[in-house]
Fold this protein.
Amino acid sequence: MNISPDFIAIMRCPACRARIELKPDGSALKCVECRRLYPIRDGIPVLLVDEATIEEAEKVKP
């Protein structure tokens, strides 16, 4: 089951109300502001703050 781009366009992060995006691998929805990752289980996004993890920032090499 694919998540509709129209559905993703109207969804907001439950924690901070910012826009969310589908991760490239399709495993989660990612908040663009607070970097919370909401898992997708059996094709259904789990938009519960308690179920979210926070993505670590990418380290930039000098």
Notes: The mean pLDDT is 90. The helical segments are 5-10.
